[in-house]
Amino acid sequence: MTTQYHEPVLLQACIEGLALKPGGTYVDITFGGGGHSRELLRQLEGGRLIAFDQDPDARENAKALNDPRLTFVAANFRHLKRYLRLYKIDTVDGILGDLGISSHQIDTPERGFSTRFDADLDMRMNQSGELTARRVIADYSEEQLHKLLGMYGEVINAKTLASAIVSARLNRSLETVNDLKAVLQRYAPRGKQHKYYAQVFQALRIEVNEEMAVLEEFLTQVPDALALGGRLVVMSYHSLEDRLVKNFIKSGNFRGDIQKDLFGNEIKPLKSVTRKPVEASAEEISRNPRARSAKLRIAERIEDKAPRQ
Length: 309
Ligand SMILES: C[S@@+](CC[C@H](N)C(=O)[O-])C[C@H]1O[C@@H](n2cnc3c(N)ncnc32)[C@H](O)[C@@H]1O
Hints:
The protein has helices at residues 2-5, 11-17, 35-43, 57-65, 80-86, 103-107, 133-139, 142-153, 158-171, 177-184, 193-208, 211-225, 239-251, 282-287; strands spanning 25-28, 48-52, 70-73, 92-98, 226-236, 259-260, 266-267, 270-272, 295-301.
């Protein structure tokens, strides 16, 4: 079941990156099909795993693991510290994040994540959320659409497309994947339609799920949540996410500005373990095309004097 739900990417590199202590406490913030969690539990002796996923579909996979060391949290990982406090956990030995959506989510037509099926424009990872892609398309101003298409999708003609969406919605409401594709097809570069649609859909998905804000909120909590020497292992699939992770590891902030104390020592809570991000091998990519854009960054919690709240 798990392999159909989602094939885990860079599995061994992620687990090695966590440098497991046999009896340690770990967090998987993106449980999904549980591929990474299962391997983590296999390699732990005792220990504990707290696994987050905001998609209720993931809960069944957690139940199927049937492991008393696993606590599944059906919540957004932006609430990391709150749940650790709830479970009376002060700090953990490692945190793993495999960002974005699972194959299960993209392959379920009615979720509206895929350009391959017609469905309502939904794209919520947590279906009790209020904002859907349909509402973004219907309610956002031309400027807002321009900004999100350019920033989150790197859509080449974002301004023109935003204007086209606003004109199209005056004539009829755009409610489904096919309604939106009918607008997009006139603006997609010839021969690159698939990539163009994927960029637009990525932009909408990031907006609907507030993915950038959530990642920032999560990363900000990591220094408090990790024990000294504890590991942060994060895999991202697009450059904006990777930049946030990279800058935060480098400097403890999202601009990447390294602060120094009076003696010239860097004040930062994390130290990068790998010089460059780890990427999937050609063999893994041929087996699992989703691994193509994965960038894995690994960091260790170090002592710092930075004030935090
Ligand atoms: C790429 S999949 C993880 C796959 C998993 N590593 C595996 O091996 O099966 C990402 C998962 O994280 C969940 N997710 C994404 N953003 C989340 C968030 N902010 N809070 C909680 N879960 C989130 C998604 O619902 C999805 O199931």
